[in-house]
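Blackboard transcription, Thursday session:
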Amino acid sequence: MYLEVKDLTLLYDRAMVLNQVGLRVDEGELISLVGPNGAGKTSLLRAVSGLVKWEKDTLRGTTSGKISLKGSVVFNGEEMTKLPAHQIAKRGLILCPERGKPFREMTVLDNLRVGGYLCKDKETSKKTLEMVYELFPILKSRTNQISGALSGGERTMLSIGRSLMSQARLLLIDEPSTGLAPMVKEDLFTRINQVHGLGITILLVEQDVGFAFDLATRNYVMSRGQIIAEGTSSELLDNELIRKTYLGL
Ligand SMILES: Nc1ncnc2c1ncn2[C@@H]1O[C@H](COP(=O)(O)OP(=O)(O)O)[C@@H](O)[C@H]1O
Ligand SMILES: [Mg+2]
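(Written on the board underneath:)
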């Protein structure tokens, strides 16, 4: 078992955003997590990658009121909830955030280098950069361009590239296709599949259930802070209640 989340419960003041969430991702899997807006998907990814803890430690008693996070996140045999976010990232558990915006004024290459700051080994960094450029040739052709000039799809690719530069072993990708045209989406999913093919484990949150279910070997469905179903794509699609109520299909 690679990632195991158990009884993860998150409250902002008294609003329960995650309610005893449990899931697991085995090494090498590509798992999807789907569910309606506001279900808690982003919060779950943020909690797993240590950002909620960061928020709790830095904002407690100031702007955001009380944040309570309980439960366990084990990655590669080690408990993550006790670690600060940068230590979690250092272990290769990397979040590629929703609408993850590269630094607009920086070039594509400099953005990728920022992603690579965790990697102290120059040779590994160089190899990873080559890999990113192979996966996303468009980034290579725009290497010295200002990132603000990229299209939506290219920006998403740059975010994923940046996460790979951080030596991701488990990549949490939050809604990569939101706002992209159908053809751009299709291309993006092919590339995500290639990233997976390189041996990187992926937990993919995606609004486009069709695409997500195509790629994933197993899926979780979330609603109102809870995992309400788990199964292979065909198992979930065969379930009329789930299909109609939660997947909007
Ligand atoms: N920092 C926060 N403070 C208060 N409530 C939050 C915060 N972040 C998320 N929420 C609430 O948590 C719920 C789940 O949000 P989110 O995780 O973004 O869902 P999803 O990604 O599935 O759309 C929403 O009701 C949202 O308003
Ligand atoms: Mg979200």
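Lecturer's comment: The beta strands are 3-12, 15-25, 30-34, 67-75, 78-79, 93-96, 170-174, 201-205, 218-223, 226-231.
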